[in-house]
Amino acid sequence: MERILVPVDFSDYSKYALEVAAQIAGEKKMQITVLHMIGISPSRLALNESEEQKEAEYYMDLAKKHFAKFLNEDFLKGVKLELMVQNYKIFSEINAIVREHHIDLVVMGSHGESGLLDSFVGSNTEKVVRTSDIPVLVVKKKISNFKLDSLVFAWNFKEEILNVYKRAKKFADFFSARLYPVYVNRPTLNFKSDKELTSEIDEIQKEINLTEEVVIYSDYSVEKGVLHYAEKIHADAVVIPTHGRRGLAHFFLGSIGEDIANRANIPVITFKTH
């Protein structure tokens, strides 16, 4: 991993993400591309060529002024930065930048814990998470001593989990982090006996040479179980698989992925299933 992309809107949440990215870049000798999307509307672009040029220059100058203030931070000293301003309105277009600039990780800020649609889900961060082909690290508060020593992986026994887990393991190894796959056993129709779980885990271990123990944690819901276990072991982040355009929720056939992302008070890392 060599390059980090940080999309910013110059908010405090963007700065939280940038600070985390700077800590990663400093430790791992990576470069950060800071992206601002100005999103000029099509109606404005319909101006004649001269007016369109003036409009574009105005927004570019405005972005440069914002960048000058936004990037004036001690935590960026010694960090290699590349600044980029694009007239994108659709956040899925970030994938084009990822490919063209060989980005390995996206780091984004997101609102706090209050409300689903007002925070993670429905936000620009969610739009990037849905479409990003590379890992997205979501930061929800200021973290001045960021570390990734322990990661909780929201596990299930669907076949598509295997590829995601392999990529998450590679990501964890890059940070010398320990990955904890956690399956939440609930008192519902989906309840599995110890015998059933042992059998399924044995099959998985044979298929992918799983070296980590799958932790079986009992709770009333998947989201509560994952977050309670993360709290129990003082995890640094939670890893959630996603289903592309269908978003976080559909990985768990419900709103579980959304709930985990919203309620987590630690960073969330997403990997899209392929």
TrEMBL record:
Protein name (record): Universal stress protein
Gene3D superfamilies in UniProt: HUPs
Protein family per UniProt: Belongs to the universal stress protein A family.
Cited Pfam families: Usp (PF00582)
Source organism of this protein record: Flagellimonas allohymeniacidonis
Superkingdom of source: Bacteria
Location of the UspA domain: 2-140, 164-271
Cited InterPro entries: Rossmann-like_a/b/a_fold, Universal_stress_UspA, UspA
